[in-house]
Write a structure and sequence with these properties.
The structure holds 3 protein chains of 3 kinds. Chain A is of the alpha+beta class. Chain A is built from 5 helices and 5 strands. Chain A has a 5-stranded mixed sheet. In chain A, β3 and β4 form a beta hairpin. Chain A is elongated, with a radius of gyration of 19 Å. The relative contact order of chain A is 0.14. Chain B has a 5-stranded antiparallel sheet with strand order 4-5-10-6-7. A 4-stranded antiparallel sheet of chain B has the order 11-12-13-14, with helices on both faces. In chain B, β11 and β12 form a beta hairpin. Chain C is 28% helix and 23% strand. In chain C, strands 3-5-1-12-9-10-11 form a 7-stranded mixed sheet. In chain C, strands 7, 8, 13, 14, 15, 28 and 29 form a 7-stranded mixed sheet that branches. In chain C, strands 16-23-24-27 form a 4-stranded mixed sheet, sandwiched between helices. In chain C, α7 links the parallel β14 and β15. Chain C is globular, with a radius of gyration of 26 Å. The chains are: A alpha+beta, B alpha+beta, C alpha+beta. At the A-C interface, α2, α3 and α4 of A face α1, α16 and β27 of C.
Chain lengths: 174, 275, 765
């Protein structure tokens, strides 16, 4: 195969791209191959491992980041496509964001591997989302632990909307 | 075998003219827009390693507007943009519905109209809509622009009339003369690949297009004719069977696809359009 | 020194989850997030045929700078130590399934690994791919009570049926991964896992290293569901072989496709029931055949079969029971542990069968269940006794009341009869079930698990090899220890499972984390409290240095189990549950949309109610996927739909509101009364959903009930046409009246392969 991109003897053919982008509110300059997945650039070049890989095919949403405010699967985005744009990862929320607090408190995080992508996808929701809004906004994020109920509780409580709903507790009739 | 993406070249034109010039120079360049199909193929190694051209930043492709009598969708318009566009909702509501079924929010934010068309998957969710709406595909190269009627654009399984050096710059949709209907039957309620897609227009004669039931999206001419002349349910089903060539695959069976295609057409037709 | 004021009780409250904040912040470090200096990446080269032998393996990788390892590099025994040592770590020449590991390669550059080319030349042989026609038996189990043949002869009515369940993939969102680091004259393993000591033991055999040279450390683990019980021993073996060969750390992370193709799944089961009843619906005989597809190696199949067989009669009392279990070999990747461990398969069968019995006899299926449900003091299929905490009737009553079941049942049926063309129709169905807590029989005694507590500068630290995989281990263990020591929850640390630090508390499986390991920890805490004699643990630590208390499992008094005869108390106790499913069917597409799932679960005591609800809701959703969506398509012995686009698990929009209800009927020998909760909730959704579809006239006896299968079921026509002539003893198969072959859903050819049913078709009396 002599097509472009083949590396005879293992050497790289594609030159590295030096690109600036705004990462979690800070300007960054990174050198990486242009077609390298944004997911890998974030995890390897930028050292931000909060963004997870679950499938590599855009199905599970674990690698969700915001690109200019839109939720995207970072496993499907070329590094070059982030040039001059804004990228927000879970680390950009600082750890004490209302969504993060709500996920921790209301059981939205069980094994936790889908949690960063789930929270970032939920960020794209407006304030006080309805249950149907939440279900639609998170339909691209798979969770295998929670059955999604605890995630809804977390997202809706983060918005302060469902404060009136009773806390789950043991006993018949709860 | 998973592709070594670090070795792949990517050209990044700033304007459409620049992009067309690059494509004229190297017609082997593969356009990359939202990457929602392309990166999946790279992941599974089903795409030959080539050099790519990033068309996602071309402002000339990023529009949804009325052009004279037609609704024009830029090749770079994403399905999120399509889904929330007032003009799409007004003129082509079945496309807005289709857009909402394409992956989750993450996919809709990236996947583009031209990408869905160029990928030419028989399961492409927007394709039956364009077929039923009798849209044109607008193609441009360094040498000029041409238009291809949507249903002529697909020549076989994942094959199109796109020539080397050409880009899909727009899909143009003429006014649709009747109530529209869209139904996707997928593998699940969201993030689903379709097993059967139907787009239909209650016009005289009616228009029906199917996805996922043949090597290409199909316009169901025999079914349309049968409905127009008031054929019995049984005859309509027979016409559907002539229009489509469903297969057994990982996601469904030929028998299921055939039965569902017939059921949905009859439900739509007998249900008065709002079914 | 004075004791700190009495701490507020934390058991039964929703204290802050230990790992919640780190996970929500993206700070929790999973295996792929870890990096070691000079680390290589690795890839496994696998077979592409299901059966045969390897003639030659050709490559030029060593010359190209790869580290390459095959079976000849194994220093110890080339096996993955488990129940039987039949599974090689690297195929030595015989191929027993596709995706079997043959060669391991490592390189600094991951992309070079993907591009590496290895040519394997095979001598193919004929493969056994259909388990129902496999004649190679692996394990048999027999449960016998009373005289089944005589009871069947005397029964007023006999109802037969055959039920099938397919493979299911655990589909933890974090794929499997291990890093092996060569150090201290041996190897340290970091990874995603459920059972650090399984890996520890397996590596000793594989690498021929003494125990102290092997260290296994669990990384944060992104879900397991059984899928990380035994298979990580294989991956750890591979990474360790490469790391020792390279003298460098080696990271081996599976991508999703490899994880789907190569790792274990839930066993497909075929279960045949032949049930005798009195004419008013009392069970007099259960004759049950259970057949399991083990795949190409033994792995955990005997134990899965065992739990499946013990649960096969359902939560019902019956004086005469015969359960014959058999697992058979096929040339497919070995099946293994998955939440529920055989019980979801057999409980699906018995709960659909109960519905069909009621239908055939014209009885109310709730009444049928209530009449026969196990009550405290009743005898189980193995001759054990249901304890005073048994609560089958309570969960049934609660589920009925909560869902307004009887009214909906009547209303939906009437509405369906009126429904016009293309109109959606609704059905409602339920399943009553139970799940034995902890290991079967004498398993816990044999295992003799240990856990320990040590004092620290700020309180105490838990030392246990029971891992956190999302279920809340850290949190509930800390709660139990805090209360037993009467100190604040925040003062209890939980050590990361590391075989160099923590004792062997047994594997993190079998719904034993809370009840069994929690019980050992409570005993540790009680002993520590006594030894502290009123002193605060931190104060004691500062004055005397660390105080360590280590305890082993102690069996509750009065339990008796005979492994040879399968007689006695199979479990110390059971958790009980009743699920109600409401579904809507589109008659034009046969899409079944669940509208609401209710799971009423009696779990003894919810140590942390919010986490317990999470277990129930999550298990219910996983059960919903099992019922309707999840199908492993096998072609030539390999999973053909090994992508998340094609192996379909429920998204938010596929998962209806789940009403999870916790009831508490404390178990006398569980800590605070707790029983197991992890597995229970996956047992019920599939039969409840199948029964809701049956309510709509669809004869569902095989899952997943995909629209394609429902289309076939609807073509057969309505069910329940068969009725029993009063006083007439006759054999009934309700489906026979619907036009199907008398022997059930399958074709005679498929049925013939695994042993003729006792008596065969015909009249029983």
């Amino acid at each position: 195969m002599g097509s472009p991109g083949r590396r005879p003897g293992g050497g790289r053919v594609s030159p590295l791209l030096r690109a600036r982008f705004r990462l979690n509110g800070v300007d960054r300059e990174v050198d990486a191959p242009p077609m390298k997945r944004l997911l890998d650039v974030l995890r390897e070049e930028c050292g931000l491992t909060g963004t997870k890989e679950g499938c590599g095919e855009g199905e599970c949403g674990a690698c969700t980041v915001l690109l200019d405010g839109d939720p995207v699967c970072s496993c499907l985005v070329a590094f070059a496509q982030a040039r001059d744009r804004e990228v927000l990862t879970i680390e950009g929320l600082g750890g004490d964001h209302p969504l993060q607090r709500a996920f921790a408190r209301w059981g939205g995080a069980q094994c936790g591997i889908c949690t960063p992508g789930m929270i970032v996808a939920a960020l794209a929701l407006g304030p006080d989302p309805s249950l149907e809004d939440v279900r639609t906004a998170l339909a691209g994020n798979l969770c295998r632990c929670t059955g999604y109920e605890a995630i809804y509780r977390a997202v809706r409580r983060a918005g302060g909307e469902a404060a009136a709903a009773p806390e789950p507790s043991a006993g018949a009739g709860t | 075998m998973r592709s070594a993406v670090s070795t792949l070249e990517l050209r990044t034109p700033a304007t459409l003219d620049e992009a067309l010039a690059m494509l004229a120079d190297d017609p082997e360049l593969v356009p990359l827009a939202g990457g929602t199909d392309l990166y999946v193929e790279l992941q599974f190694g089903t795409r030959e390693p080539r050099a790519y051209i990033d068309v996602s930043r071309l402002p000339e492709l990023r529009f949804i507007e009325e052009r004279g009598w037609a609704l024009a969708l830029g090749g770079g318009a994403t399905f999120a943009e399509v889904g929330r566009s007032d003009v799409v909702r007004r003129r082509l509501p079945m496309l807005a519905e289709a857009a909402a079924t394409i992956g989750g929010a993450q996919i809709q934010a990236r996947a583009t109209v031209a990408g869905n068309v160029a990928n030419a998957s028989p399961a492409g969710d927007s394709l039956p809509v364009f077929a039923a709406a009798e849209a044109d595909v607008v193609l441009r190269s360094a040498h000029g622009e041409r238009r291809v009627p949507f249903t002529d654009f697909f020549t076989g399984y994942r094959r199109t009339r796109l020539e080397p050096g050409e880009l899909i710059v727009a899909v143009e949709v003429p006014p649709v003369p009747g109530a529209q209907w869209f139904r996707k039957v997928g593998t699940r309620a969201a993030q689903a690949i379709s097993k059967v897609v139907v787009a239909a227009v209650r016009a005289d004669p009616p228009r029906i297009a199917f996805g996922s039931v043949a090597p290409t999206p199909v316009r169901a001419r025999a079914t349309e004719a049968a409905l127009a002349k008031g054929a019995s349910g049984e005859d309509v089903r027979a016409a559907v069977a002539r229009d489509i060539q469903p297969i057994d695959d990982l996601r469904s069976s030929a028998a299921y696809r055939l039965a569902v295609a017939g059921n949905l057409v009859l439900r739509w037709w007998e249900g008065g359009g709002g079914a | 020194m004075t004791r700190a004021p009495q701490a507020r009780a934390s058991v039964g409250t929703n204290v802050t989850r230990r790992d919640g904040a780190a996970k929500a912040a993206g700070r929790a470090r999973y295996i792929d997030d870890l990096d070691f200096p000079d680390m290589l990446h690795a890839r496994t080269i696998r077979t592409t045929i299901p059966c045969g032998s390897i003639r030659a393996v050709r490559h030029d990788l060593a010359r190209e700078g790869f580290v390459v390892v095959d079976h000849t590099h194994v220093p110890g025994r080339n096996v993955i130590r488990l129940i039987e040592d039949d599974q090689p770590c690297l195929a030595p020449g015989v191929v027993r399934h596709a995706a079997e590991p043959v060669l391991l390669i490592a390189h600094e550059d991951r992309e070079r690994l993907w591009q590496a080319e290895v040519d394997i030349e095979y001598e193919p042989a004929e493969a056994i791919l259909d388990y129902e026609s496999s004649s190679i038996t692996q394990t048999t189990i027999r449960i016998d009570k009373g005289d089944v043949d005589a009871a069947l002869t005397g029964a007023d009515v006999i109802v037969e049926g055959t039920y099938r369940t397919g493979h299911q993939e655990q589909l933890y969102i974090e794929t499997n991964g291990i890093i092996a680091v060569p150090e201290n004259g041996g190897v340290t393993i970091h990874g995603s896992m459920q059972c650090p000591y399984y890996i520890h033991r397996a590596l000793g055999v594989l690498l021929d290293l003494p125990a102290e040279r092997i260290r296994v450390v669990q990384a944060e683990t992104g879900g397991g569901f059984g899928g990380k019980e035994e298979y990580p021993s294989m991956i750890a073996g591979h990474a360790a072989l490469l790391a020792l060969a390279a003298g460098r750390p080696v990271k081996l992370i599976y991508d999703r496709e490899e994880d789907l193709e190569a790792t274990t799944k839930r066993h497909p089961f075929t279960v045949r029931h032949r049930t005798g009843l009195t004419r008013d619906g009392e069970l007099v005989a259960q004759d049950i055949d259970v057949l399991a597809d083990a795949g190409a190696y033994v792995t955990l199949s005997p134990v899965v079969l065992s739990r499946g067989a013990i649960h096969a009669g359902g939560p019902y009392r019956c004086p005469n029971v015969r359960i014959a279990g058999r697992s058979v070999f096929t040339n497919t990747p070995p099946n293994g542990a998955f939440r529920g461990f055989g019980a979801p398969q057999t409980l699906f069968a018995v709960e659909v069968h109960m519905e069909r019995i009621a239908e055939a006899m014209g009885l109310d299926s709730v009444d049928l269940r209530a009449r026969n449900a196990l009550r405290p003091g009743d005898e189980t299929a193995t001759g054990g006794t249901v304890g005073p905490d048994g609560s089958a009737l309570q969960v049934l009553e609660e589920a009925l009341g909560r869902t307004d079941y009887r009214r909906k049942r009547a209303e939906y049926r009437a509405a369906a009869a009126r429904a016009g063309r293309g109109e959606a129709r609704r059905g409602v169905g339920l399943a009553l079930y139970f799940h034995g807590s902890g290991f079967t029989g004498g398993g816990e005694v044999k295992l003799a698990s240990e856990a320990a507590l040590e004092t620290t500068e700020s309180g105490v630290r838990i030392l246990s090899s029971t891992v956190e995989i999302g279920q809340g281990t850290r949190t509930i263990h800390a709660q139990m220890v805090a209360d037993a020591l009467d100190i604040a929850y925040e003062r209890v640390e939980v050590a990361q499972p590391d075989t160099a630090v923590v004792p062997n508390s047994g594997p993190t499986v079998a719904s034993r984390t809370c009840m069994v390991v929690g019980g050992i920890l409570r005993a540790c805490a009680e002993e520590m409290r006594a030894r502290l004699d009123g002193a605060d643990p931190a104060e004691h630590f500062r004055r005397h240095g660390p105080l360590v208390v280590r305890r082993a499992y102690e069996a509750p008094p009065g339990l008796a189990w005979d492994e040879e005869t399968y007689r006695g108390d199979a479990y110390g106790t059971y958790a009980w549950a009743c699920d109600v499913a409401e579904v809507e069917l589109d008659p034009d597409t046969w899409e079944a949309r669940p509208l609401r799932l209710t799971a009423v679960c009696e779990i003894g005591k919810a140590i942390h109610p919010r986490l317990a609800l999470g277990q129930i809701e999550g298990g219910t959703a996983q059960g919903l996927g099992y019922a309707l969506l999840e199908e492993v398509v096998m072609r030539d012995g390999l999973m053909a739909n090994a992508q998340l686009t094609n192996y379909i698990i429920p998204t938010t929009l596929d998962t209806p509101p789940i009403d999870a209800v916790i009831l508490e009927s404390p178990y006398a020998h569980g800590p605070w009364g707790a029983k197991g909760v992890g597995e229970l909730p996956i047992d019920g959704p599939a039969p409840a959903i199948a029964n809701a579809l049956r309510h709509l006239g669809l004869d569902v006896r095989e899952i997943p009930a995909t629209p394609e299968r429902l289309m076939e079921a609807s073509a057969v026509g309505g069910v329940g046409a068969a009725t029993v002539a009063p006083g007439a003893a006759r054999e009934l198969d309700p489906a026979a009246a619907g036009g199907e072959p008398a022997q059930g859903a399958g074709t005679p050819a498929r049925e013939g392969g695994w042993g003729a049913p006792d008596g065969g078709p015909g009249v029983a009396a």
